[in-house]
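Tokens in:
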């Protein structure tokens, strides 16, 4: 039995090593998952049977299904908002108010309330709005990419409602609570307590804002090729600002209302997911009627919605396999190993720092903060519990460590997306951004040590 417990860490370590070596996240997760299943049932068919049973069990969980469905539908709604021309109309309206380079930067920050629901949406939305304006005022494309990316993931993860990050993080925290056998705490409540402790996101936002005044100027590099996935097609209907604002207002206001309403009659970790899912379904219905009345053909709208929703399928696969991997590791006894061997051997103050460093390093090398968080979070909470560290602090360390990689890694989807949307030279953008991001990471590491001592 002791041998099996020690082997419980093998699937996760194998996944991380393969992902760093190959830069292929889904195959690495699948390999680690299959190895874990064969450790559970070391027969020719036993491993596959264990794999099928774990996936079916995970997808049978109501909370998990709510998260996956929410992310899928949200991706479809975001794509419809792009196709409706709302972003284009907004861009034309604000153009006359921007007079200089600093005005472009201020506008980028001012767009946060309209683009915070998803980091990809912020990059595409705000980037599309300001692309022509930045060119008009001769703002460096690399500096714009830096400013845009550093106000995407760091902002979205600090918002406690109506974003893709909320449902995703609640689901990951729920997996961690299950592994730690914690039944008396809500995943959403832990997330709320973790948000003020996401030090890297807070520090990097401050550093990025100050760079408006003290930042280094950079001559724009050669025009980069536009990633076809980031291309914003011509609007399907006449561009109107209401096509952007009304869906945003609907999603945000309904999410707040339904979470408040459901919290009065229900308790449990799925409340937030259920509230946001109900709000999203109503918002999609309302938005579809709004666009249909503007002559957006229903067949074309449905096709666009499905095409947009399908863009997030790789993320859904990553989540499903990562959660299944965590479940298999739990069956192998990983939480027991953490409690007996790791938790007691690490000073409590060092646990959050170690998790921040691990999440940062893994995300930097594999380029996917969500994948890293899905892999690390289920083990972070048992480690925090066994080592006597603050659970919200350790949760924050994992989340914000992933954000460091998202804004710094050369292979991260977010860095490539930001450079593509402004046609920036990717290497020149990273060279400009790296000093700011690594300084913010160093400051954050010190704060995690202090918080680990005090909390």
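Residues out:
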């Amino acid at each position: 039995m002791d041998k099996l417990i020690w082997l419980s860490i093998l699937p996760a370590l194998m996944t991380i090593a393969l992902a760093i070596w190959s830069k292929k996240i889904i195959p690495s997760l699948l390999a680690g998952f299959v190895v874990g299943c064969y450790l559970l049932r070391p027969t020719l068919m036993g491993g596959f049977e264990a794999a099928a049973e774990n996936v079916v069990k995970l997808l049978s969980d109501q909370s998990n299904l709510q998260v996956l469905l929410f992310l899928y539908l949200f991706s479809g709604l975001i794509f419809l908002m792009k196709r409706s021309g709302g972003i284009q109309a907004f861009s034309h309206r604000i153009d006359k108010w921007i007079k200089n380079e600093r005005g472009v930067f201020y506008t980028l920050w001012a767009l946060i309330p309209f683009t915070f629901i998803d980091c990809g949406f912020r990059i595409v939305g705000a980037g599309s709005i300001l692309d022509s304006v930045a060119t008009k005022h001769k703002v460096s494309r690399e500096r714009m990419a830096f400013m845009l990316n550093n106000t995407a993931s760091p902002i979205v993860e600090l918002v406690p409602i109506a974003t893709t990050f909320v449902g995703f993080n609640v689901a990951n925290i729920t997996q961690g609570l299950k592994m730690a056998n914690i039944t008396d705490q809500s995943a959403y409540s832990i997330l709320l307590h973790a948000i003020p402790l996401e030090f890297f996101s807070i520090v990097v936002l401050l550093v990025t804002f100050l760079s408006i005044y003290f930042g280094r100027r950079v001559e724009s590099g050669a025009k980069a090729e536009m990633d076809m996935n980031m291309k914003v097609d011509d609007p399907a209907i006449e561009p109107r600002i209401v096509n952007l604002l009304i869906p945003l207002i609907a999603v945000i206001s309904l999410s707040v209302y339904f979470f408040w309403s459901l919290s009065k009659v229900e308790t449990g970790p799925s409340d937030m997911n259920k509230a946001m899912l109900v709000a999203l379904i109503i918002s999609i219905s309302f938005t579809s009627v709004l666009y249909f009345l503007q002559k957006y053909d229903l067949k074309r709208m449905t096709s666009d919605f499905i095409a947009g929703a399908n863009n997030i399928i790789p993320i859904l696969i990553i989540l499903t396999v990562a959660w299944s991997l965590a479940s298999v590791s739990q069956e192998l006894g990983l939480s027991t190993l953490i409690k007996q061997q790791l938790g007691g051997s690490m000073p409590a103050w060092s646990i959050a720092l170690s998790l921040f460093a691990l999440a940062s390093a893994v995300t930097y090398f594999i380029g996917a903060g969500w994948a890293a968080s899905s892999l690390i979070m289920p083990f972070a909470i048992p480690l925090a519990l066994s080592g006597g560290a603050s659970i919200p602090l350790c949760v924050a360390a994992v989340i914000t460590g992933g954000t460091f990689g998202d804004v710094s890694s050369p292979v991260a989807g977010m860095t490539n997306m930001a450079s593509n949307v402004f046609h920036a030279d990717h290497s020149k953008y990273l060279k400009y951004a790296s000093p700011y991001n690594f300084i913010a990471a160093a400051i954050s590491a010190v704060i995690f040590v202090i918080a680990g001592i005090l909390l």
